[in-house]
């Protein structure tokens, strides 16, 4: 505002006519009006940006962005290789899914054959093409979902429907041999599908667990919520509760929850709010959202949104008056989903697997939760895996850790008064 203010020259004689403004007064008024207009424009711009930021967080995307370029597909005898533009994702070794043609095409991409930093290209093996013609693909998106369905992973499964509030949510049911008293309920992350959970179905089978790979509201398979918005775990947990009921009705006596990214937040809410929480034996969480405030601040920073604007967006999500701007039918209580602050309240044994270079969900809150509640939380770090791709980078280690930890958690419990032998 000071930039717009000027004072009258010292030698200027003051006017004696009360109906006429002095030159200094005119400049002061102009400065006040101009400064107020600029402040108003800035405030309006900040508010609009905060609304945009808040809505982006809770609005499901209709289509994934095809941001990975395919430069060429090479035939090598019966095998194929693909040349991709080098990115932070494509230059990490491991096994991945690649979706193209608007998601209609799906290929499994394997190891790195060569990498040229100068040309910014990477050559990788193509292990399988499940659908579509990869040779005609020019753009697509990188994914941790390696397999399109259980049969592609060599896992027998049934398609079942779980009754939820607004209809039925499809799920894959993978039955263990014999009568499995413990079921694994697998919850994918934001913007993903139940394909993401296929990597855990094999280890669960080895442990004798029957698995349900779930869909939930707004994921494109299950019925949408009334408001069409993500609840960031605050509403989706009810669909996991419905899956628990389905499991109990079909022979389960207890469950283990698996969750990826936002699916981890959903599992934590289920363990906190479910009326069957005493039957949740353990949780395995991969790159989970432990504290949404931390994640939202991180995304505001990487998108160069001023911190105050980011906090204003968070306020909109949690305040009843923000519903008209965000489209939420009810506010999202971010504090209730801050498990760093609520660490001692977590009473379900939990294994967290998280890469230290996760670009989407920082690993810090996972480490803090384990530090504050070591009795309940076991924390295992990975490197170079980025977000939810720990299995893709080190599948043997991921499966070994999960199976060893779950065997310990699922071991028969002694009655409080029982004597131990030996």
TrEMBL record:
The chain crosses the membrane at residues 27-54. Keywords: Membrane, Transmembrane, Transmembrane helix. SUPFAM superfamilies: alpha/beta-Hydrolases. The keyword Transmembrane helix applies. The keyword Transmembrane applies. GO terms for molecular function: serine-type peptidase activity. Residues 226-411 form the Peptidase S9 prolyl oligopeptidase catalytic domain. GO terms for biological process: proteolysis. This is Lipase. It comes from Pseudarthrobacter enclensis.
């Amino acid at each position: 505002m000071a930039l717009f203010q000027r004072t009258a020259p010292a030698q200027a004689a003051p006017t004696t006519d009360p109906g006429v403004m002095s030159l200094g007064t005119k400049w002061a008024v102009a400065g006040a009006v101009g400064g107020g207009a600029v402040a108003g424009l800035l405030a309006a711009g900040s508010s609009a940006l905060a609304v945009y930021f808040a809505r982006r967080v809770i609005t499901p995307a209709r289509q994934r962005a095809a941001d990975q370029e395919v430069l060429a597909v090479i035939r090598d005898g019966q095998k194929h290789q693909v040349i991709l533009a080098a990115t932070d994702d494509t230059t990490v070794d491991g096994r991945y899914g690649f979706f193209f043609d608007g998601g209609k095409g799906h290929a499994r991409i394997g190891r790195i054959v060569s990498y040229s930093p100068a040309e910014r290209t990477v050559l990788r093996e193509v292990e399988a093409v499940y659908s579509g013609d990869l040779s005609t693909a020019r753009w697509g998106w990188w994914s941790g979902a390696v397999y399109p369905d259980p049969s592609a992973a060599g896992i027998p499964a049934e398609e079942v429907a779980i009754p939820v509030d607004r209809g039925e949510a499809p799920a894959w049911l993978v039955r263990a041999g014999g009568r499995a008293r413990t079921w694994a309920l697998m919850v994918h992350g934001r913007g993903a599908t139940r394909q993401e959970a296929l990597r855990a179905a094999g280890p669960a089978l080895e442990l004798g667990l029957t698995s349900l790979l779930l869909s939930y509201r707004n994921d494109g398979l299950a019925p949408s919520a009334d408001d069409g918005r993500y609840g960031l775990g605050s509403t989706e947990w009810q669909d996991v509760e419905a899956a628990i009921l389905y499991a109990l009705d079909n022979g389960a006596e207890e469950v283990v929850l698996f969750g990826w990214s936002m699916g981890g937040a959903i599992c934590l809410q289920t363990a906190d709010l479910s009326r069957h929480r005493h039957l949740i034996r353990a949780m395995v969480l991969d790159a989970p959202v432990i504290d949404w405030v931390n994640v939202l601040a991180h995304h505001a920073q990487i998108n160069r949104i001023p911190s105050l604007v980011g906090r204003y967006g968070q306020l909109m999500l949690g305040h009843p008056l923000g519903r008209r701007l965000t489209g939420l039918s009810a506010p999202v209580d971010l504090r209730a989903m801050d498990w760093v602050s609520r660490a001692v309240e977590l009473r379900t044994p939990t294994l967290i697997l998280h890469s230290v270079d996760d670009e989407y969900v920082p690993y810090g809150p996972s480490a803090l939760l384990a530090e504050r509640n070591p009795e309940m939380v076991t924390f295992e770090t990975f490197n170079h895996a980025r977000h939810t791709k720990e299995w893709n980078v080190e599948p043997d280690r991921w499966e070994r850790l999960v199976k060893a930890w779950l065997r310990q958690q699922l071991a028969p419990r002694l009655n409080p008064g029982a004597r131990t032998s030996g």
